[in-house]
Structure formats: C-alpha cells, structure tokens
Design goal:
Helix 5 packs across helix 6. This protein is about 60% helix and about 0% strand. The chain has 2 domains: about 55 residues, no CATH class; about 100 residues, no CATH class. It has 7 helices and no strands. With about 180 residues, the chain is mostly helical.
Amino acid sequence: MKRTPSPLPEDHTQRELESFRQAFAAGNEAGLYDALVFCKRYALTLPEWALDASIVRQREFIYGQTKRHAKWQRQFRQDMIDMARAEMVQECRERRAPWREAFECASRMLAGTENEGGPDAMEKSYKRYVRTMKNNPLRYYVPQFIRRKERRASFDPAHAEWLDKKFPFPKDGGPRRYRRT
C-alpha cells in the first residue's frame, strides 16, 4: 500500500513523535497510544519503538499477562487525581488563600467529584505532585487523543461563587485580599 505524504512538516512530526516516545519511556502508556493515533491520523510510518511496544503489549494481551496494565492504570488514575487536586490548590493560592486554607478550599471545591478528598488528602496530593514533577514530569503527560473529563468544570458552580467571594481577584490589579467568613 502506497502512503500519501503527510501534510505536516518533517521537523514537527519528529518533535511530536519524540515527545510521545519520551512520555512512554518515562512509564506513561499514553505516549504509545498518542504515537499510534498520530501516525494513523497523518498516514505516517510507525516508529520502531512504538511498533516493538505494540507487539509486546499485544502478546501480553493474548497470553493474559496484563498485570502491568492494571498497575499502570491505577497509577495513572492516581496521578490525574493528584494533578487535578494540585491545580485546584494552586488556583486557591493564586487567589492568595493561605496554605492551610488553600487545602481546605480545594477540598471544598472538589467535593462530589472523582477528585474529592479532605484537606489532608489535598495536601498529600499536592506535595506528591510537586515532588514527582521535579523528578519525572512526564508521569503527568495527558493523552492528546483521548478526551478526558474537564477537570475545572467538575465542581459545583456555587462553590466557584463562594471562592470568588472569599478570595476575590482584584479589579485594579493590586494585591489580592481575602475575607474570613
């Protein structure tokens, strides 16, 4: 089968495939998935590393040796929870919430979502996220070709109003102030 040339510039293609390889090499299976979809979408030849990894994963599937995938799925799910919690803590901090209140605020904002947890859980997730980002930032690689639930829209809008009241953004660009309620 003859392939039509890709509409993408060669350097862009190589950068994308290299970023997918790096994510996969860091232990994030989503890098392999994105490489497969990217090559299919743009009619590219699959890189050797992606082909080899696909063969290994298919063999594991056929012979029922999928423990690696279950472990990775649990870790990926926890990484995404940690990332969502850390982003919410950072948002609270951007509104000048003190550290202790930032964890409480994030806990309240994420209540009722898949990322919910108490203030202590928010603090642990935040610290784990910061520590892991320093050592292995590609663990938090989010697949480009898989639609994930929107994290920021996953909390009740009433909580957003509470956040705006308690930790308002300044209208004139000056320092942010917060009010105790």
